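Here is a complete protein record:
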Amino acid sequence: MVMGLKQQGGRGKFSPMAEINVTPMVDVMLVLLIIFMVAAPLLTVGIEVNLPDTEAQNLSEQTEPLTVSVTAEGNIFVQDTQIEYDNLVPHLTAIAQAGYDQAIYVRGDKDVDWDRVAKVLGQLSKAGFRQISLVTD
């Protein structure tokens, strides 16, 4: 708050002035907004997968989907957690029993063998999931 004296009327008559200067506050808020706009996409880093290009339409989901990623090295990730192939069905069964009934998105690197992605899709089907979508660029 800026306090000062404000001249009123004639010479020598002053009264206190109390005004809030909002310009510095707006400047700070704009700088913070820019920092958060730049930093927010960096906080949502997932598994690096080089997706193949297609001409399919984008899907719009309201909730965060469950993603299963297969990297170029053949590693399998559920969300950001690496899972061994043999542990994939028990892990997904536990997720299904917890009440997850939305679609599962499978992200397969375009440099991985299709056989590896097909086996993951088979495991998803074996776990009882029926809404499976392949993610591409």
User: Anything to note?
Assistant: Strands lie at 2-7, 14-19, 66-70, 76-78, 81-83, 104-108, 132-134. The CA atoms of residues 23 and 29 lie 10 Å apart.
